[in-house]
Amino acid sequence: MLIFKKINHLQQYISTEKSKGKTIGFAPTMGALHLGHTSLIGLANTECDISVCSIFVNPTQFNDPKDLEKYPRTTEKDVELLLRYDCDVLFLPDVEEVYPPNQVIAQPFDFGSLATVMEGEFRPGHFNGMAQVVRRLLEIVQPDALYMGQKDFQQFSIVANMLRQMKSDIRLVMTPTIREADGLAMSSRNVRLTQENRILAPRLYEILSQLKEAVLSKKDIEKAKETAYSVMSQLEDFKPEYVDVVDGYTLQTIKNIDEHEFVVTCLACWAGNVRLIDNVVVKK
Ligand code: AMP
Questions:
Q1: Which of 11, 55, 82, 230 could bond 87 through an S-S bridge, CB–CB 3.0 to 4.6 Å?
Q2: How far is the CA of 170 from the CAs of 138, 142, 166, in angstroms?
Q3: What predicted TM-score, i.e. pTM, was given to this entire model?
Q4: Burial environment of residue 218 by CB neighbours within 10 A (0 to 12, 13 to 18, 19 or more)
Q5: Which residues are identified as catalytic?
Q6: Residue 280: which of 236, 245, 233 has the closest Cα?
């Protein structure tokens, strides 16, 4: 695996490979890698000639400075994992490389109501920061395909919208959420869960799965959401932020499943001081 810290070195390599007709599959990450991340690399390896992973803890997408400070950083282990999963290239820039001090900041995108609901409501500025770094990384890497996880469903929808606004021809690929054996969605933040909260955390997936069943069996969606929220609040040390059933294209709350072809149920919940998100597709 080649490791680049500087943009010009990475770009030299990529343009040489592209001139030989090689295709580039790119998976941007914030490190503290797990099997969710390596599944992105696995698919990039299957579909493209060269897989590129970036590890960059993007300061502009953290609305909470404490969250940024506490974000796990495990570069050595990450490199080992990427080697094991045959990643071809790791891009490991520092903050000044991605955001040079004298660079003009690009005008933020307008994502409309896609970015004001769910995560947008509870993490102001998060999606602007995320879109800023994804746009910048795409500019640098210039991949043919971009691999992102369903785990961050709203993030995926916003990146899809951004690529449309940019009239980009990069192919955006969604990969399924990789879970622990007990159902908990893998996340870099899981290592920060207390032992007690780690035991309770798989309940979030159960709650989403029960909500999915309730919606599919035409139960009242509002009532089913209230039940889900109340079950979450009863978990010791857990504080739900939201649980919703939304249209998978617009991310707006739905009332009647029959009026939508793509439906997803999503939640965010604090487990102690760790914020967890998850989602389950109800129908597509
Ligand atoms: P992150 O490092 O958390 O910013 O995530 C980098 C990429 O990995 C994003 O596209 C995520 O959606 C994806 N990802 C994170 N966790 C998982 C998971 N459990 N399963 C699949 N993809 C994931």
A1: 82
A2: 9, 8, 10
A3: 0.97
A4: exposed
A5: 37
A6: 245
Substitution candidate for ligand 1 out of 134, 152, 274 with most atoms within 8 A of CB: 152
Pocket test for ligand 1, best of 151, 153, 180, 266 (most atoms within 8 A of CB): 151
What is the per-residue DSSP string for 100-136?
-TTPPPPPPP--GGGGTSTHHHHSTTHHHHHHHHHHH
Strands 263-271 and 274-283: antiparallel
Given the CA of residue 188, which atom of ligand 1 is nearest to it? 3
The protein residue with its alpha carbon nearest to ligand 1, atom 8, reads 37
